[in-house]
Design goal:
- The chain is α/β, with parallel strands linked by helices.
- The chain has one domain (2-199): Maf protein (Alpha-Beta Complex).
- The protein is 32% helix and 23% strand.
- It contains five helices and six strands.
- It has helices at residues 11-22, 51-66, 100-110, 175-181, 183-199; strands at 2-6, 30-34, 70-79, 118-129, 135-146, 162-163.
- A six-stranded mixed sheet has the order 2-1-3-4-5-6.
- The radius of gyration is 17 Å and the shape is globular.
- It starts with a strand and ends with a helix.
């Protein structure tokens, strides 16, 4: 049995990761744990300016600290009219990390005068880092628009204002459906083959 550490303490991400991995066949020899099970591992400062840099920083640090393969992601929302922001600052856009409603409120306030459709996409960069130094980097994107009609109670982050082409927001999707189409699911499926190739 090979243990792989998810380098995140975000409860929403952990829930999505586990749901995605639990449904995979052919990887039964892999046990997924999260970094909270290693109290001596310090939080990694996300000092990068891209999703790839931040994900790599976290994966490398956790792999080095635990001696185990680690998977980390950095993800966020990119809004065209804001020049790609909030981007890597998505989780702390309003100043406090993980203040979902405050982040939504600030983004909508910043675009208050915009009357055109606001194209946006979620980005997830995922990195698998092995203790010996080998790495795999994968990326997933989900495209939609920003809606001012916040709705839905599932999901987290900007999900209630991210509208899909069918008119629903991500927060209106059941978890099973979201896990088929999300940016994180796309990146995770891309890295699935890497897990199989390198760890089994």
């Amino acid at each position: 049995m090979t243990t792989v550490v998810l380098a995140t303490r975000n409860v929403g991400k952990l829930r999505e990761f586990r749901a995605l991995i639990d449904g995979w066949s052919g990887l039964q020899g892999i046990r997924i744990v999260h970094v909270s099970e290693f109290p001596d591992v310090q939080d990694v400062v996300e000092s990068g300016v891209t999703f790839e840099e931040n994900a790599t920083l976290k994966a490398r640090a956790v792999a080095a600290a635990t001696g185990l393969p680690a998977i980390a992601d950095d993800s966020g929302l990119s809004v065209d009219v804001l020049g790609g922001c909030p981007g890597v600052f998505s989780a702390r856009w309003a100043g406090t990390h993980g203040a979902d409603q405050a982040n939504i409120d600030l983004l909508l306030s910043q675009t208050m005068d915009v009357t055109a459709t606001m194209a946006a996409h979620f980005v997830c960069c995922m990195v698998l880092s092995l203790p010996g130094g080998a790495e795999r980097i994968r990326r997933g994107e989900l495209h939609g628009i920003i809606t001012r009609n916040q709705r839905g109670t599932d999901g987290f982050g900007y999900d209630p204002i991210f509208e899909l082409p069918d008119g629903r927001t991500l927060a209106q999707l059941p978890a099973q459906e979201k896990n088929q189409i999300s940016h994180r699911a796309i990146a995770m499926r891309a890295i699935r083959e890497d897990l199989g190739d390198t760890l089994t």
